[in-house]
Amino acid sequence: MSIRLNALVERLRGSLFFVPMLFVLIGGAAGVAMVEVDAALDDQATEFPLVLTSTVGSAREVLSVVAAATITVAGIAFSISLLVIQQASGQYSPRVVHSLFRDPFNRRVVALAVGTFTYCLMVLRAVRSSVEDAGEPVVPNLSVALAVVLGVAAILAIVAFIDHNAHTMEVSQILQRVTQETLAQIDSIWPEGGDGSATGRPPEAPDGPGHAVLLASSGWIQQLSARQLLDLVPEGGTVRVETAPGRFAVRGTPLCTVWPAPDDPESAQRRAAEAIEVGRARTLQQDPSYGIRQLADVALVALSPGVNDPTTAQDAIFHLAEVLGVALARDLPTGIEDDERDRRVVFAEAPTHATLVELAFDEIRRAAAAHPAVCIYLLEALHLVERSLVAAGHPGRVPPLRRQAELTVAGARRADLLHDDLREVLRAFSRRFGDTGRHVPAPATDPPGGG
Prior knowledge:
This protein has helices at about 5-15, 20-40, 55-90, 95-100, 105-125, 140-170, 170-190, 225-230, 265-275, 290-305, 310-325, 355-370, 370-390, 400-415, 420-435; strands spanning about 210-215, 220-225, 240, 250, 255-260, 275-280, 335-340, 345.
């Protein structure tokens, strides 16, 4: 699938317009079709059960009531969706809004409501009395009965919608959704089955001058196609990509450098533009680190003075541990792709295991230095990831985790902590990263500024 088609699919998955629009069309077509079915069965209308029959007045009344009710349901659903998004953005992080937009349940409820509304309008316009147009009365009994069923379904849907969104605002639900989306993306682009030797470090670029291809627009880089970038160079050529998905593109800065320099720079510029997708928002496409960014942001907001919610920070930290336990056990891209013509693409900004650990924990441990309980949560999470890596046969990937644990303790030592609080942090470190069972003595005096 091309990156343009992938980008279109991603936009549709996050759109609150596309699915309701489809149901409007389906509802209109269903209304026309049901009126035709009723017209074909007009001679048998007297044989319908009483519950399926209507008069001209009752048919108009029922259709009007159902249409009014369902359009009200649609309005309520939109209002609740926007309220949930606004609250999640302010209380947790603006980054988690991305996952809420992709929730298919909300779109389906709105789609059912507007589709039913459109269906009722199409049927309502077909109802005729005997005095109108001096003809026979037209009462589409089956169509009206179906409108009643759809109306009841829409009312039940709004109840389910309210229940769904009430649970959606639970922080554990938000974190779990982000975690699952991130793990799915990791499975997609960092598959299992490597030999454990890949480190994610890109090779060096060729010597000599190359031609820089510049970015034609600004925005978030969502996708890059290595195969299309290979077409920029002849056999034996090299393309060094100077950016990566998840980075912000600034127009006029280098996208890549090609060796040898192309004979037609303008053509190379056009082809390079076709190999990259730049959008208004950062996404998880080709960028699992964005999921790590979202989880870390929730923890940082929770640790901010205005929120001060260490328990939410704890929840986010352990979800980060779940993601890192999977990501660090995978062989990351080596930073190079080639083909049978000995052309290669070198990614200068390829991720490494160390950068993933730093992204997850650097900012959190700095914000947590004055929170001894959160420092202990961090040490526990780091310890759990370390144990999972050792069990998976990757002890060589543990040092970045140990480094974070040591920095967590160093930050706690420099913070304005009470003597007993610092001692608990030191004990937590000793139990998990020091000699098992060995007591860490308390400092002789309180830390500077301690109680």
